[in-house]
Specification:
Blueprint: H1 2-5, H2 11-17, E1 26-33, H3 48-59, E2 64-73, H4 78-95, E3 99-108, H5 110-115, E4 120-123, E5 128-130, H6 142-148, H7 172-197, E6 213-215, H8 216-221, E7 227-228, H9 231-239, E8 244-248, H10 261-266, H11 273-292
Parallel strand pairs: 1-2, 1-8, 2-3, 3-4, 3-5, 4-7
Antiparallel strand pairs: 5-6
Helix pairs in contact: 3-4
Length: about 300
Amino acid sequence: MKKFVAPLLPPPLRRRFVPDWTPPALVAVVRLNGVIGAVSPLRGGIDLASVAGALEAAFTMRGVKAVALAINSPGGSPVQSSLIYKRIRALAEEKSLPVYAFAEDVAASGGYMIACAADEIYADESSIVGSIGVVSAGFGFTGLIDKLGVERRVHTSGESKSMLDPFKPENPDDVKRLEALQRDVHENFKGLVRRSREARLVEPSEGLFTGEFWAASGALARGLIDGIGDLRGVMRGKYGKEVRLKVVGDKKPFWRRGIGLSAAASIPEPARVGEGFAQGLLGALEIRSLWSRFGL
């Protein structure tokens, strides 16, 4: 009888008339979807500013038992990835709540860095996980401007101020400085993964920190994830079949749906239409290339 009466009553009355009734566990779900970096209404993506509110709401939700991160990101800015990672860990320790990360299509590079903020990481059988490395990509336009008969004029104070200028021939010294910078960032990434995964990480493992990536079975064999499964199934296994999964911060305000006030503000003035189009095209190509690296 209690089984049928309890769901019909509000929580205060359930406790009064069904003393042994306990409410189902509540798990807050935060979706982290897109390329990591500077966010604009037309570009999308995620950075700390765009997810801080959802994270705060998830960890402070009344009665919450855990926080689940649904991650679908090919990476992006190492700084924003690190900032999001640190915010999640700070909130988890402050609120003494467990955190679970779930890779969807891909949790790679900065996306995997964020996943490392969780106490446990899970992935679907076909999820792409890993890519623990640093990449810097660009274009060289020297041949194009020569063909067009364009003269490049750059005036700097400081010999390295125009380093890696795409309109100038590549300088070997500039490349060496970039590679040294990348090594520093890569070492920070590797240290973060080792600290987060601790004894679960299988080392030495071929390709672990080379930027290589794997499907879930390969990631599991190397200790990059803790299991294969989806968010709902794993949470039901841990907190019971009646667990409540509440998505936090998934809805956008009306002014960010499509072309709204914020989007309109970013549309270039007529005099800069060409420049704005070029920047938008390059940004779209960059985003497309990040996803396509993982076959997506």
